[in-house]
């Protein structure tokens, strides 16, 4: 009975940590995955990992409010940090959508249940395809499993510096989004300049009628041509965010845990 009770305690703590990651991380948080599937997956991972992580050095399987909040903090650090990838893609899509004159075309995002721009939804879908094709979801899960060595079960305490680091990382999504949308921005800007010069040379030309379709056509051509660079760009951002999450988990807590 004591061994069974210890196993259940360890499984509960692992379940809380994995659930925090599944709630926010890319692909795992998608509502396209049925809730029952995600629940069964989380339970299966917790069941398989519980006896292994409970035997690691410095692991504490005793249930308490501090241990539960600590495990939830680890999962949220992974989930919220990697969720910045989706936010970067959404913001890049908004920038491109404005250049395509699609700023008023919105769709219901199934992930957040809010209205999102058409191009933002497209960019998020393309990013999810890259995550699946490159196996980044499995890399994230493997990193989560390794986190039990960096932050033993029931021993993590969320530090104030960790939360501030995630907030600062959130500011980087704006720069990354502009980098992703930069080719389209530059091309459409050149189209606007060219159409404006034509309008000066030939005032009888319908400049307003030419600007929007030319910008849209040029942007789509350039976006299609740049899709070959998407996997490298998304993988690089994913790796940097995952490295950040791993450093935050491995860093010794300097604040007061929940």
Give a structural overview.
The protein is mostly helical and 258 residues long. It has one domain (2-250). The chain has 8 helices and 2 strands. It has a two-stranded antiparallel sheet. Strand 1 (106-109) and strand 2 form a beta hairpin.
Briefly summarize what is shown.
This protein is mainly α and 258 residues long. It is built from 8 helices and 2 strands. It has helices at 2-24, 35-53, 65-99, 118-133, 136-150, 160-201, 207-225, 230-250; strands at 106-109, 114-117.
Keywords summarizing the entry:
258 residues; 74% helix; 3% strand; elongated
Number of strands: 2
Sequence stretches where pLDDT stays below 50 over 5 or more residues: 254-258
Mean pLDDT: 82
Rg, Cα atoms, Å: 23 Å
The level of helicity is over 70%
Q: How many domains, in number, for the residues?
A: 1
Order of strands side by side in the largest beta sheet?
1-2
Structural class: mainly alpha
Helix run count: 8
End-to-end separation: 30 Å
The largest sheet, given as strand count, sense and whether it forms a barrel, is:
2 strands, antiparallel
């Amino acid at each position: 009975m004591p061994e069974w009770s210890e196993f259940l305690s360890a499984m509960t703590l692992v379940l809380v940590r994995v659930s925090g990651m599944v709630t926010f991380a890319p692909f795992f948080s998608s509502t396209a995955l049925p809730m029952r599937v995600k629940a069964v997956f989380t339970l299966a991972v917790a069941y398989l990992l519980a006896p292994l992580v409970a035997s690691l050095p410095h692991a504490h399987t005793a249930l308490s409010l501090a241990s539960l909040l600590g495990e939830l903090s680890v999962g949220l650090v992974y989930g919220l940090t990697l969720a910045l990838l989706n936010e970067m893609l959404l913001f890049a899509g908004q920038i491109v959508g404005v250049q395509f004159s699609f700023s008023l075309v919105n769709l219901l995002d199934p992930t957040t249940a809010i209205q999102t721009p058409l191009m933002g939804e497209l960019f998020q879908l393309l990013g999810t395809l890259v995550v699946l094709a490159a196996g980044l979801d499995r890399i994230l899960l493997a990193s989560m499993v390794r986190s039990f060595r960096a932050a033993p079960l029931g021993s993590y305490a969320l530090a104030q510096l960790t939360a501030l680091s995630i907030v600062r990382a959130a500011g980087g999504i704006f720069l990354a989004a502009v980098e992703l949308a930069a080719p389209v921005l530059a091309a459409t800007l050149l189209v606007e300049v060219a159409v404006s010069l034509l309008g000066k040379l030939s005032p009888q030309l319908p400049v307003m009628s030419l600007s929007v379709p030319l910008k849209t056509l040029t942007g789509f051509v350039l976006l299609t041509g740049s899709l070959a660079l998407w996997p490298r760009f998304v993988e690089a951002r994913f790796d940097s965010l995952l490295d950040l999450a791993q450093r935050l988990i491995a860093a010794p807590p300097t604040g007061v845990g929940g």
